[in-house]
C-alpha cells in the first residue's frame, strides 16, 4: 500500500521536509515514487502539488497523521485534524483505588 509521508531534509538543527509518496513499509530515506511538495516547520511554509496529491489519494494512497493535518491546512482535504500523539494507556485506564491497611487483630 502507498503512503504519503514526510522525508526529512535540511541541515542539522534546521529541518525541512519533502512530502513524498512511497511504499508504506519502506524506509523514509529509501526510494520513493513521487515528490509532491515541501514543508518548512520553522516558517510554516507549505508548497504542494494539489492535483498530484488528489490523484494519489483517489488511487488509494494513505497520508500519515502529520501529512493529513497539513493537507487540511492547505485546503486539499476537509474534516477534523487527527491527533498526532497517541494517548498513553495509563491516562486512559480507570484510576487505581488505594489499598486499605490491614486491620489490627482485636484482643478478646
TrEMBL record:
| Region annotation (Disordered) ranges | 81-108
Q: Which Gene Ontology CC terms are recorded?
A: cytoplasm; small ribosomal subunit
| SUPFAM superfamilies for this protein | Ribosomal protein S16
Q: Name one GO molecular function term.
A: structural constituent of ribosome
Q: Which GO terms describe its biological process?
A: translation
Q: Would the keyword Ribosomal protein be found if you checked this record's keyword annotation?
A: yes
Mind telling me which Pfam families this protein's record contains? Ribosomal_S16
What keywords were assigned to this record?
Answer: Ribonucleoprotein, Ribosomal protein
Query: Family assignment?
Result: Belongs to the bacterial ribosomal protein bS16 family.
Q: What is this protein called?
A: Small ribosomal subunit protein bS16
Q: What organism is this sequence from?
A: Candidatus Wolfebacteria bacterium GW2011_GWB1_41_12
Cite the source lineage.
Answer: Bacteria, Candidatus Wolfeibacteriota
Gene (UniProt):
rpsP
Amino acid at each position: 500500500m502507498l503512503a504519503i509521508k514526510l522525508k526529512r531534509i535540511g541541515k542539522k538543527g534546521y529541518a525541512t521536509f519533502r512530502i513524498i509518496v512511497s511504499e508504506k513499509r519502506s524506509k523514509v530515506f529509501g526510494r520513493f515514487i513521487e515528490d509532491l511538495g515541501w514543508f518548512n516547520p520553522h516558517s510554516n511554509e507549505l508548497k504542494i502539488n494539489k492535483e498530484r496529491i488528489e490523484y494519489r489519494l483517489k488511487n488509494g494512497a494513505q497520508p500519515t497523521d502529520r501529512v493529513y493535518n497539513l493537507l487540511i491546512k492547505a485546503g486539499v482535504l476537509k474534516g477534523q485534524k487527527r491527533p498526532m500523539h497517541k494517548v498513553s494507556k495509563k491516562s486512559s485506564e480507570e484510576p487505581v483505588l488505594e489499598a486499605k491497611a490491614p486491620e489490627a487483630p482485636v484482643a478478646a
